[in-house]
Amino acid sequence: MKKLFLETKNKLTKFCKSWYKNSKRRMYQVKLNINSRNIDFAVIDSHYELKHSSYMNDSIILLLLQDLNNLEFEPEEIDEDGFEYYSTEPHYYEGKTFKLIWLLPKKGTYIGIINCYRRSYGRQKNKIS
Questions:
Q1: Whose CA is closest to 129, among 44, 82, 64, 68?
Q2: Structural contact between residues 58 and 67, judged by C-beta atoms closer than 8 angstroms
Q3: Is the pLDDT score of 11 beyond 90?
Q4: pLDDT, the chain, mean
Q5: Contacts of 115 (CB under 8 A, 6+ apart)
Q6: Is the pLDDT of residue 41 over 70?
Q7: DSSP annotation string for the chain
Q8: Percentage of the chain exceeding pLDDT 90
Q9: Which of 4, 12, 84, 114 is buried deepest, with most CB atoms within 10 A?
């Protein structure tokens, strides 16, 4: 069941909204199908560069996005504007594990990448299989 939050109460949404407003974004053409929706563009937020630029870049994120292709996910939250927020893990690249934090708009053919970083796993959420 999808959750609808009329106010920004959830930790993930608060985090995303606080960073997403003031950061630089880059757009890339992609061909994905997520939640039975065709996705034509990936919009990557620059937030990951604050702490993770030593090992993360847009090219790696674009490769990790392929893990989402042709899969269905339940959003962790839907905000008052209809944006659906997700965090998925584990994603693998060169033997290392990563977590993606992303969103899908209510309408539109893009995926927004809010953050991506390396993880070690003690607890897992929305595991990619």
A1: 68
A2: no
A3: no
A4: 80
A5: 19, 45, 47, 48, 52, 100, 101
A6: yes
A7: -----SSS-SHHHHHHHHHHTTS-EEEEEEEEEETTEEEEEEEEEGGGHHHHTTT--HHHHHHHHGGGTTB----SEE-TT--EEEEEEEEEETTEEEEEEEEE-SSSSEEEEEEEEE---SS-SS---
A8: 47
A9: 114
Strand 110-118 versus strand 37-45 pairing type: parallel
pLDDT of residue 4: 34
Contacts of 71 (CB under 8 A, 6+ apart): 34, 35, 128
> How far out from the chain centre does Cα 34 lie?
12
How many Å apart are CA 69 and CA 33, to the nearest integer?
Answer: 5
Residue 23 has phi, psi (to 5 degrees) of -105, 165
pLDDT at 8 (0 to 100): 40
Residue 86 tokens, joined: 């997700």
Instruction: Respond yes or no on whether the N-terminal peptide bond of residue 90 is cis (omega within 30° of 0).
Output: yes
